[in-house]
Fold each of these.
Amino acid sequence: MPSSSKTRKSDISLSNCGYSKVLDIISNKWTALVIYAMEDGVIRYGEMLRRVEGISKKMLTQTVRKLERDGLVARNIIPTVPPSVEYSLTPLGETLLQPMKELRQWGRGHYQEVEEARASYDMANASDP
């Protein structure tokens, strides 16, 4: 007999759930794009800014700093005039590439279905207040 929701102990927690912890790292819309920009190796800041469509300098800086703090990105300052900065994924950051590629593949294969489901839902619920 299934237990009622009143007697069942919570088994999903924002503070303890592995999924929520991972999503906290990669859920920002720019994070995945910045990681994808580094998937082929070392990249300079300016090149990354050109590759990631729509990202501002401020947001790129915030994103790479967060990823560096999380141990996913390494920053290397080259002592030139003016100084150049290169970024690359750390070995830990590289471990995210495969699961993120799988998510990207899922999106390519199924996002049309999501859009169709949304349109169908919106049409069916258009008269709801």
Amino acid sequence: MTKPTYFPRLAAERPDIALCRASTFVARAGETHAATQGLGVGQQLVLKMLDAVGACSQQTLSEELRIDRSVMVSVCDDLEKSDFVRRERNPRDRRSYAVTITDMGRERLREAEAAIPAYLDATFAALTAAERRQLTTLLGKLLVPAGARPGGPAAHRT
């Protein structure tokens, strides 16, 4: 088998392609890791956000975590069946549900989070600690909406 020579050149020319392929690699690694933990990536993200910010609507979870609304419903259904979250009518908006993490959900989150450092070390082994921090910073910049970036379109409005 010959050593690949084209893709590294393509990735250097097209950061979008490189990012898509890297994203697929990391997503697969994340799902494989999650399967060993018995808690899906989306489920863990929901528990983590609820633990950090408190009760919120499924719509807010969906928007903040960038999980499709229809997927969020099944994520919350599964978490509720496992007694990791509680859904109650939102007293401020009776059309929505407030999702709240339970004590069991907090415990399950702590267990899952304990395995994250080893997973990250294995997944990002090709990068030094400084490169990982730099990658995180750069990806964070890409995830800020264009209008909210310094010097972005919103910055030029008067």
